[in-house]
Structure formats: C-alpha cells, structure tokens
User: Fold these one by one.
Assistant:
Number 1:
Amino acid sequence: IAFRYGLDFRGLAAANGIGSDYRIVPGQRLTLTDKAGSVAIASPMRSSKPAVRPPPLPDTSPQMSAPASRSVDVPSKKPAQVFEATELTAWQWPTEGTIIRGFSASEYAHKGIDIAGKQEQPVKAVANGVVVYAGSGLVGYGKLLIVKHSERYLSAYAHNNRLLVKEGESIRQGQVIARMGDTGTDRTKLHFEIRKDGKPVDPVGLLPKRN
C-alpha cells in the first residue's frame, strides 16, 4: 500500500498503529499518510476471503489514475532478511538499452525510466535484496517485480516477458531476475523505478554514469 501511494511504509504503519508484522485485514480503515494529522480513508468492506497478493505498483501513465481507495491483502509470511544497499554507490543498471522516457515529478508524473530493448533480454537486480512482489496484478504494468533492498530503498521492474524469481526470495546484485518483454504495454521495454523512503526518485541520479 505504501508503495502504491508513494508513502514510507514505516510511517504508514505508525500512523495506523500497525505492528512490526505489518498485518492488515479486509475492511480495516487506514489513514493513507506517513505523517500524523491527515484525513483517514476507509477501505470498502469485502465478504470474500483474503487473497495473498500484495498491492500493485502505482500508475505511471498520465492518462491513468489510481483508485481513491480499495481493500488490499498482504502475505501472512514474513519476507527473508533484506541485504543492505550502500547508498549511491552500490547500484548497477538493470539492463542494457537506450532510455526512451525519463523520470518526471510533474503533475503528470512518470515515476521511473523506460529502457528500450529486445524480447527476452536479461533484466538484472540493481542491488542485493528480497523480492516482495512478483505478479501481474495491475493492468498496464504487465509482469512486475518489486524488490526491497533496505529499510529505505525499493526498486521495481515492469513489462517483463518472464519472471525468474519468487516472492520472499533473496537475490544478489547482477542476478538475472526477469526477461524483458512487452506485457501490459505497446513495445518491448523495461519500466524501472527506485523508491527512497516510499518516494519516487530519478534512477539516473543513483545508477552509475554510462560512457
């Protein structure tokens, strides 16, 4: 939920009195903020049994908007231990290719970068971490991976043709975690994001400079 709405998950949990297991239930009222004093938004009640999928990636397309509220479900198991990423110096590029759309923090935000490539081109982990989401739960993003690198950093890899790792799996920097594709989009590319304390940052500012 924090990733979807651009919030720090620790602050979101604290604002809602949620413990360190981060467990929530269908119909629970959540305040969508990572700071005190914001307006609470209620998730609608559902009678169906809880699923085990985490919430999808927030929308990056100008013409699409995220729903105002929804009920979501979380995995019951705790993820594996997260490997700490060294700030600014530990990152590597997720794949080869030309950036065809850059990061934007404007009104019509594009919360990451799009890298052109070929079908089945390797997509690599930019740093050590743990897979916290692997699936295709959001229309427009295709097959998606979200990786937690530390308490502060997450990365996301969208539009893959194949996902090669599973939720809860520990991965190493440079490991091939997916194969590039065009799922949920109109051409073969990787949509890549980095979040710091829940907020989107320009990946180019963290990744090594290319010659």
Number 2:
Amino acid sequence: MKEVFDSHIKALPILLKTLLEMHPINPISLPQIMPLKGIYLFSENGNHLYVGRTNNIKKRIQNHCRLGASHNQATFAFRVARSDTNQHKASYKTEGLRKQLEDDPIFGPAFIKAKERIRNMELRFVEINDPVLQALFEIYASMILKTPFNDFENH
C-alpha cells in the first residue's frame, strides 16, 4: 500500500503542471468531449481562486455557473458571496442558515452576482479517475496555488 501512496505523491507535481499548462476555457462554453472525472480550477485575471474535484466535471461546472443553482450546487459562488458580504462564518442556528442567506435581500443578490462572475472566469481541468489521487491532488493544488476559496474545515 505504501508504494501506491508514494506513486500518488510523486504524481502530484506532474498533475499540477498538466493542469496549469491547459489553455483556459470559459466555463459556459464547455467542449463537447471532456474527461468525466477529475480536478478543476477556477481562475480570474491570472489569480487562482478555487480547486474542486468531481466525478462529473461537465455537470459540476454547469452547477457552479447556473444562475438558478442553489447553495448546495453552486458552493464556490456561495463562498464568494460570503466573502463579498462579510458573512464568512457558517451558522448552525436558524439565523444565518444557507437557505435563509439565499433569501436575504443583501446576500441573495450577491450570490447571483457571484454565479455571474464565475461564468466569466478561466477554467482548467485535468482528468483523474482514482478517488484517492483526486482527494490528494485537490488538497495539494489548493495549497500550492493558495486558492482563497478552498476550505478543508470539518462542518
């Protein structure tokens, strides 16, 4: 098992190079043929903002960008809206719940604006089928790239 883990660790810098060398595309103009599983990176004006992983890249990107997507679907946009409205802390009380925030007269429009913003970002992705390698690479890439919207806190 150690050999498998070591090979995953050895692959991380190579995968990062592959990801960063991809010519960025627009998230709302996805190519017809894309890898199914992997890691994706949202950037804006050369600043890397968010790394995500998924078993369906196309569908996940569409969820991040769909203007009608809920807080559970557009998690990156929700984090951007939290940052833009200075509502950084999650609440586990009735006040401040995600659904309640979506309906808030200040946060709701900020959430929609964040989804619009993401639609215009640069997108890169790399195919990774192994779930363990996906998890390791998501953490590795977000740490190396210092993506401000990644959070590995337990909730």
Number 3:
Amino acid sequence: MTAAVRRPYGELDRARVVASLRNLVGRVGVQGVTMRELALELGAAVPSVYYHVPGKRAALDLLAESVLDDIPVPESGTWDVRLIELYCAAREAVLSVPGIAGVLQTSGGGESARRLDKLSRSLLAEAGLTKAAAAASHSVLYTYLLGSISLEETRPVQRGKRQAANRFRAGLDVVIAGIKACLENR
C-alpha cells in the first residue's frame, strides 16, 4: 500500500496490524521491519501506528503472539502423542513467519506462550514427571523447537521441507524416549 492511500481514522485494529506485519515480514524479513514500513503497509500515518504499537519490539512481540495463537491444541491421544502433535504444529506455525523464532527466543511470547507452556508442562506431568522434571523436560523441548527452526532458517534446505520435518520429528522422538527412560528408571 502506498502512502497516498490512507485509511480513515479508527480503522486500524490488532488483526489488521498483525496481517500487515505478516505481509511486511514476508517481504523484508523480521530484521527489515520498521515502524515507517509498517505504517506504509497499513496505509496509515506513522503516529497512528505508534498509537496501536509503541515500537518495533512491541510489533514483533505482537506478531510472535499471533503466531503462537495459530498453534492448535491436540485434543486426544496419550500424553506423548499429544506432545509430539503440539511441537510439530508449533514448528509449522513458527516456520510460517521466517525469523520469528529469533523473536521468541528473546521475548516472553505473552499470554499465548504461557498457554502453550502450561499445556506442555501439563502433558509432561500427565506422563508422571515431577514438577521439576517436567520443567526441565519442557525447557529441553522448547529449546529444541526454537533451535532447530533457527538452524533450518539459516542453513540452505538440502533435501526439502519434508526431510526437515522428518529430521525434526526424529529428534523429538529421541527427546520423548529420554523422558520415558527417565520415568522407567525412577
């Protein structure tokens, strides 16, 4: 959208800002986001954008939270099946916005991140882990998720998206096997 096309006052809302952020990040990447570029994307004056989003960091945090909102909650299956579904879905959602994994590594992720953290920890508790072991296992899983995505984004895909998804799943299976071994050795 060009600066010549302006939105009427009051037409900006969270959904429009997030959609514009997704479009902008798709074109310029997370690092290329500026408030001026976001304003152009929205067809709004820069001060109007600052009214809704106080700065670039807040804009990227808003985008990260919206990405986490897209992660479906697995409804049925054993704890390990639901945990695998959760992390595979999280991987797909985070990969849908290149560079957002880096934002998630340095921000809290808001209420959406807390919801997913709670879900992950509850599945680990359902497995029979103590609160401390569930917290440690969750940290390993979350680090694996964001780390593998960051590596995938910075290295050229050699064998395609399906191969990358299969590698991620194989690593997830190793982590789950470790959790199960921990449970058996208690």
